[in-house]
Amino acid sequence: xxxxxxxxxxxxxxxxxxxxxxxxxxxxxxxxxxxxxxxxxxxxxxxxxxxxxxxxxxxxxxxxxxxxxxxxxxxxxxxxxxxxxxxxxxxxxxxxxxxxxxxxxxxxxxxxxxxxxxxxxxxxxxxxxxxxxxxxxxxxxxxxxxxxxxxxxxxxxxxxxxxxxxxxxxxxxxxxxxxxxxxxxxxxxxxxxxxxxxxxxxxxxxxxxxxxxxxxxxxxxxxxxxxxxxxxxxxxxxxxxxxxxxxxx
Length: 249
What we know:
single chain; about 15% strand; hydrolase activity; two-stranded antiparallel ribbon; 9 strands; alpha/beta
């Protein structure tokens, strides 16, 4: 059903909060399009429908994580081998965080994420995995007790920041760097209350820290005090102490 016979097409149309004029006026009404059983299913791929999916992911994430105790997010490579020192460090960090009274949140995947979840589970703490839909994703690791899978990276990143009081960053690739710089930017710009960020593995992070100091700061692209937004260590106990010392629970 379109414009009733004998009636001219209106010059202005209000559809909820949306205003349409002239050639952008649509035939029919919102209720009519909702109740019309004819037509194809292309509407499920439109941006307005995606907004509903995004909203639902926020609701599910908030609902699942709202009652978490104080938590620390642990990041690291999905490619970390189970027989590597980095994996063992992840297990020790996950265990130590639980013993310090914190839940552990990871990306829920294999490698360093699995290691931290394993340590948390072995210490009988709360082990959380926030997964992401990827073509090569292997699913949540077996040590996750509370898991949420997301379609959208930005929703998942919100959960990491909202429900963690600090970050421990193990050696990792592009995804790990993305999470690290997201956190540093949020703290630097005061979009979030400052929380500690610890890089574990001095040898691995040395090149990045030197580049930040010698190129970014030296070139005037960041300030000297921005280098104080994170700590670097090789010691598990120090990492846990640094990431938890500023937190009141």
